[in-house]
TrEMBL record:
It comes from Halovulum dunhuangense. InterPro entries: GH (IPR017853), GHL5 (IPR029457). It holds the Pfam family GHL5. This is Uncharacterized protein.
Length: 792
């Protein structure tokens, strides 16, 4: 049936929706309260046999567009549409339906619209309006729940009720039900995952299959294989952002239309950008980045949540990382100007004081978490600010952060409030932020309403380089803070931010060469260090978090291939990571860096020479690409790579680096090279923390933490902790420097350590199982954990 024949406008329901909106705006106690109620009706949703569409479109008022020039645009494919194909040209039919308006809002209710499901593609839609010259303009839906071709293309009407009804973790939610919303508390520990590099498939579906395979093997009692341990021993999985990100600055677009005599033809490209997740455009935040979807269906995120919730032995929490503190400049293309409050270092600030924007952002968050997340990590909470004209200052919007934590979710009939983590380093980016930040601003503000609210701790924030000599003693004052008030901090030094910063360190600094023979070994061991992990899991309070790429000793960096204008500059800044993460052997592997090799960089040494010149020329020319290309062409002897460099070729080299690095960072490549003793030790360490969850608490009056004195060229930490049942845990870790000489750790003059009954619980490699106590020589990255039961 033709689209125009099957679609009917429900005039009565449409007018009722407009009347309801007008009533909310008139009778609500505040404009924001009205906007919150209206935001629940925005976007597109099937409702029985009908479908309701709602848009906030103040630009129509700005342009004084009359109601008769505003329509809902429906687009239906005239031939089968396969969302798993890389490219296809599909003929669409288009139908325009008049909408009804109430101030800045437009609504319409339709019969006959097809909603998408796991097995069916639905109708696509947008709002469109006609100007006085007869030109048409499209308004996309920022609250869409399915964006198969990204946030800059028409959205798909999607049946969320069917998606939720088909989820397989109903029993998990039923067990949480009660008369009041369930409040999730913190897990014991967290595995942080970047979906595109976590498995060979690089999608949510492939990650789900991986966890399901692990679950099946555990249930059947099968032995663990190489790499399985990397994903086990965790109470929670935290994904780097999974919302839509930027697209290619200069195209091609994933949805490109051509009008002809045969109707509308759309050139459709499966979204294929690579991104580390934080370059969001705000539009589409309520749904899933199509680049992460193997099937193009948002159900894949529900599937992952259900697999984690049904994991044998103990359910795993799913934590989603949300980015509402900024928008990339591309967001200006996807959203109206009322969303933005001016530029910042990332792109654009958001106008949190606008009640419509505030309500819509919170609604996006609510819809996203309803996919099945148990926790929320808020990126860059220090960036949620508003301008106070009275004081001429930017103020932190702590009320908005509180509102984020107050949202009540509902999944499978169970209402709940997620566990919340805030990354907040205020007064960052103030120059003295590393010294002056307390990392407790949100914790202190929300303590009265939520004692379980968390922040990233000081050793988890970006600028931590544990492979530079003197790092640990220089951070000792922060460690003391962790012992006293770290119970509500995320701990650990390896995450997506710290590992990236580590790859940007100048290798000419005072590097701890005892960590390895090569720079790659040094970097790997610095962020997957037995002693550091032992300190994090057996001594420090808080909730430990590990980054999969670090524990897998895979590569990592700033991955984004959408840039055109600044792509060469970004690569010049990232070029130093070649010194830390790529050696001649890894570059020579045929599957690695194939694009750069095709451009003429046949060896690592040739690429390294090119990268010595590029950053310097970016700086001295103040990023003049024409001059950079000219000067590179004149280098003698001639640089490897393209025979002649011009601006387009420079951009081609930059794109090749980003695409090759994205492939190179995949965890699947490093599994076969992992050291079984290290991965087995790390799993034992994680399980130890899970068996002793009381270690999350702050140090008590009988607990002790110190370093061996005199320092004598090495940093050795000691920790003695007392559990609520009388159990004691003594940890000694060699963080850096020369060996200790032979000594018995249990004879150290630490109050509470004396007496018998101590047993060795954990030994960091290379200490063997044969060591059960007595004198030992500790070297860099070695450590021991002893336990003593009550009454011993």
């Amino acid at each position: 049936m033709a689209l125009a024949d099957r679609i009917s406008r429900d005039d009565t329901a449409t007018e009722a929706l407009v009347d309801w909106c007008r009533d909310r705006l008139t009778t609500a106690r505040s404009r924001f309260e009205a906007e919150q109620a209206i935001a629940r009706r925005l976007g597109a949703r099937p409702d029985g046999d009908a479908a309701c569409f709602g848009f906030w479109c103040p630009e129509l008022l700005d342009n004084r567009v009359p109601e008769g020039d505003v329509f809902l645009e429906l687009l239906a494919p005239l031939e089968p549409l396969d969302l798993t194909r890389s490219h296809q040209d599909i003929r669409f039919e288009r139908h325009l339906v008049p909408v009804a308006r109430c101030e800045a809002f437009s609504f319409v209710v339709l019969g006959g619209a097809i909603a998408g499901t796991r097995d069916r593609t639905g109708d696509f839609y947008a709002l469109t309006w006609r100007d006085a010259e007869g030109d048409w303009h499209r308004i996309l839906d920022p609250l869409a729940m399915s964006l198969p071709f990204g946030a800059f293309a028409p959205a798909e009407l999607y049946d969320l009720d069917a998606m939720q009804a088909a989820r397989t973790d109903g029993d998990y939610y039923a067990a949480l039900g009660g008369s009041t919303p369930h409040k999730f508390g913190p897990p014991v520990n967290i595995l942080q995952i970047h979906v595109p590099t976590a498995t060979a498939g690089g999608t949510l579906a492939s990650l789900t299959r991986h966890f399901q395979r692990l679950a099946d093997r555990i249930e059947q009692g099968l032995p663990l294989e190489q790499g399985d341990t990397l994903y086990l021993g965790y109470d929670a999985v935290q994904l780097l952002p999974v919302e839509p990100t930027t697209v290619y600055e200069t195209g091609p677009d994933f949805w490109e239309e051509t009008d002809g005599d045969g109707g509308l033809t759309v050139s459709l490209t499966r979204p294929n950008t690579t991104n580390w997740g934080y370059d969001v455009v705000i539009a589409g935040m309520g749904t899933v980045n199509p680049c992460l979807l193997e099937t193009g269906r948002p159900d894949e995120l529900v599937d992952l949540a259900a697999t984690l919730h049904n994991f044998p032995g103990k359910p795993k929490m799913l934590i989603l990382d949300v980015v509402f503190g900024h928008s990339d400049n591309q967001g200006l293309r996807a959203l109206n100007a009322h969303y933005f409050a001016g530029p910042n270092m990332y792109g654009q600030n958001l106008d949190y004081r606008n009640p419509s924007v505030r309500a819509i952002l919170l609604e996006m968050q609510r819809r996203k978490i309803d996919f099945g997340a148990d926790g929320v990590r808020v990126d860059g909470a220090q960036d949620f600010k508003w301008w106070d004209p009275a004081t001429q200052t930017l103020c932190h919007d702590d009320d908005y952060l509180q509102a984020m934590a107050d949202i009540v979710q509902e999944v499978a009939g169970t209402r709940f409030r997620p566990w919340f983590i805030f990354e907040d380093g205020r007064p960052w980016p103030q120059e003295d932020w590393e010294l002056s930040s307390t990392y407790r601003a949100v914790i202190d503000n929300q303590a009265a309403t939520d004692p379980d609210v968390f922040q990233w701790g000081p050793l988890t924030f970006a600028h931590n380089t544990p492979f530079i000599y003197g790092f640990w003693l220089s951070k000792y004052w922060r460690i003391r803070e962790m012992l006293e008030c770290g119970a509500n901090w995320i701990s650990g030094t390896a995450n997506h931010d710290t590992l990236r910063r580590g790859t940007q360190v100048n290798p000419k600094l005072n590097i701890n060469t005892r960590l390895g023979e090569t720079r790659m070994e040094i970097l790997d061991k610095a962020y997957d260090n037995p002693a550091v992990s032992m300190l994090t899991y057996a001594a420090f309070p808080g909730v430990p978090m590990d980054f999969l790429n670090a524990t897998a000793r895979a590569r990592w960096g700033f991955i984004r291939n959408q840039d055109d204008r600044y792509g060469v500059k970004v690569v010049a800044e990232e070029a130093i990571s070649l010194k830390w993460q790529v050696d001649a052997y890894s570059y020579s592997i045929p599957a690695n860096f194939r694009r750069l090799k095709e451009l003429g960089f046949e060896t690592r040494e040739e690429l390294a020479r090119f990268f010595e010149f590029l950053p310097a020329l970016v700086e001295v020319t103040e990023y003049d690409l024409e001059q950079i290309a000219k000067l590179l062409n004149e280098v003698e002897p001639r640089l490897a790579g393209p025979a002649h460099l011009d601006v387009p070729t420079l951009k081609q080299v930059a794109r090749a680096w980003m695409d090759d690095m994205h492939d190179y960072c995949n965890v699947a490549h490093s599994i076969s090279t992992l050291e079984p003793r290290q991965t087995a030790f790390m799993l034992k360490l994680r399980n130890f923390r899970r068996e002793n969850p009381w270690l999350r608490s702050n140090f008590g009056p009988r607990d002790r933490f110190d370093y061996l004195q005199p320092v004598a060229g090495r940093t050795v930490f000691t920790s003695l902790r007392h559990g609520p049942d009388g159990r004691q845990v003594f940890t000694i870790t060699h963080m850096e420097g020369g060996e200790t000489g032979e000594f018995d750790p249990l004879t150290l003059p630490i109050e509470g350590l004396q007496g018998f009954g101590w047993e060795v619980a954990l030994r960091a490699p290379p200490i063997g199982e044969e060591y059960v106590g007595g004198p030992i020589v500790l070297r860099d990255s070695m450590g021991l954990v002893y336990t003593r039961s009550p009454g011993r």
